[in-house]
Amino acid sequence: MKFSFGKNWLSYSKVALDGSKIAAAREAFLSLTRGIQLRGARFLDVGFGQGLTLFFAAEAGADVYGIDVDPLCAEAIQATQRFFPSAPLPRIAIASILDEALVQAQQETGGFDVVHSWGVLHHTGDMAKAFRNTGALVRGGGFLIISIYNRHWTSPLWHGVKRIFNKLPRALQEGILLSLYPLFYLRARSLFGHAGELTDRGMDLRHDIRDWLGGYPYEYASPTEIQERFSELGFHLVRCELTRGFTGCNEFVFQKADSGDK
Prior knowledge:
The structure is a single chain. The protein has helices spanning 5-16, 19-32, 52-59, 72-80, 100-108, 127-136, 155-167, 170-192, 205-214, 223-232; strands spanning 42-46, 63-68, 91-94, 112-118, 138-149, 235-241, 249-256. The protein folds into 2 domains: 16-152 and 220-256, 3-Layer(aba) Sandwich (Rossmann fold); 155-214, no CATH class. Helix 1 runs parallel beside helix 4 (72-80) and helix 8 crosses helix 9. A 7-stranded mixed sheet has the order 3-2-1-4-5-7-6, with helices on both faces. It is of the alpha/beta class and 262 residues long. Strand 1 (42-46), helix 3 (52-59) and strand 2 (63-68) form a beta-alpha-beta unit. Helix content is 45%, strand content 19%. It contains 10 helices and 7 strands. It starts with a helix and ends in a 6-residue tail after the last strand.
């Protein structure tokens, strides 16, 4: 049982995306990648979704490539392209980061200087394997940028909510979304203040709610667990931005040890 992230992203790109959301998303991307040389870098986005990250990385001069397991994301990125009329469609593939053959093929091409995966690896159904495979695609000295749901005492409860939500008929799902919108609105206002946008990174509250309630498979980890796991994979932490929403995503920037490092 899996939630169709591609369907949600396609809807977002077609009906919610606009210039202000793109500006907010670009600002968040530049903040997340500060200090990382993108010009001339080979850049991989694991789970490209609506494609904004690929367009932003290409704007910065990177050679970009994206993979996503949901075929509808290929339609979503085409819908997003209308906001980047002078940019070519980024090179993408419909593929899973859990696919060992894919990982091996990309390793044989030399890997990537920067691998980005925002809010994706915890939805693969095997987060530990997704971590290993994603880390394996980073070149020595390269950077890994990920965000992972924070471990919180409510996390197991949300795991159950997501399973149940995905088993419901579409009409009932929509009814639940409408009934819970005021609660999520108040939560967003408490996090982002009484003025301005209700979400960060150029997101849209309605699509965010559907993503949150339906996002399954669903795993999570504490910041310490994430740091320990990637330390074992040969990475050191550059910086970490903790979520303000308890069960939201913690952001991590790691750098991989050079092959010559001891």
